[in-house]
Amino acid sequence: MKLQSGKPTQNAFVESFNGKFRDTCLNQYWFRGLSETQTKIEMWRQDYNEIRPHSSLGYQPPAVMREETHTGSGTNFGERTEEVESYIMDETGGSG
After folding, report:
1. CA distances (Å), 25 to each of 39, 41, 47, 69, 90, in order?
2. Distance (Å, rounded) from C-alpha 48 to C-alpha 85?
3. Cα–Cα distance between 62 and 7 in angstroms, integer?
4. CA dihedral of 96, 60, 81, 47, whole degrees rounded to 10
5. Is the pTM value of this prediction over 0.85?
6. Each residue of 50-85: pLDDT tens digit?
7. Which of 44, 48, 50, 69 is deepest in the core (most CB within 10 A)?
8. First and final CA of the chain: distance in angstroms?
């Protein structure tokens, strides 16, 4: 299926994601360089994919769901979650 340019309704998932990304990441910062941009976007990605509750998962973070479904996998998401949450709190002044 070919998507027509200028027809965002043909790819609503991507348009929805782009809006969330713009509102919750790109519009929140003044990026001073490529390295800073990459760091902040990566931290946002980690939050979006691992920490933020998802309605499709019963409003639980994906990391929690993953731990519940794959118990004993040996993966510790808790340490990374705390690091990302701390970074977000620092960047937003505690409103993260």
Report:
1. 12, 7, 11, 30, 14
2. 11
3. 31
4. -50
5. no
6. 888 888 888 888 888 888 887 754 445 455 556 666
7. 44
8. 39
